[in-house]
Design a protein that fits this description.
115 residues, mainly alpha, two-stranded parallel ribbon, 7% strand, extended
Length: 115
């Protein structure tokens, strides 16, 4: 992942990564630190090493991660967006907008039922 970003000449120093405990490993944290990337990663109890790093230095962005992950999961239910059958960027963008509108309308309809 890092090599791809570096080959695109994207500066990594000061980058912030907000990840769940599945990314908690010594190698991942060291790789991020070597490149100047701040890794806000939750502690994975299966790794067993809790004392070496400061976990979740910034709690607020970590809490917001769930809403982003949930929205990505909703987007995965749209086959035309997930598989990218489109050949043009404008068509793919249009399908994303349609998916966002459908998600919004479903949420508004659900909220209306509870009133």
């Amino acid at each position: 992942m890092f090599n791809l970003v570096e080959s695109a000449d994207i500066p990594l120093d000061g980058l912030f990564i907000n990840a769940d405990s599945g990314f908690d490993s010594k190698v991942f944290r060291l790789t991020c630190a070597e490149r100047g990337i701040f890794a806000n990663v939750d502690f994975n109890p299966r790794s067993g090493e809790n004392n070496e790093y400061e976990y979740l230095s910034d709690d607020e962005p970590y809490k917001e991660r769930y809403s982003i992950e949930r929205t990505n999961a909703w987007m995965d239910s749209f086959k035309s967006v997930l598989n990218r059958f489109d050949v043009t960027v404008s068509s793919w963008t249009g399908f994303n907008y349609i998916a966002f509108m459908v998600i919004l309308l479903k949420k508004l309809e659900k909220r209306k039922k509870f009133r």
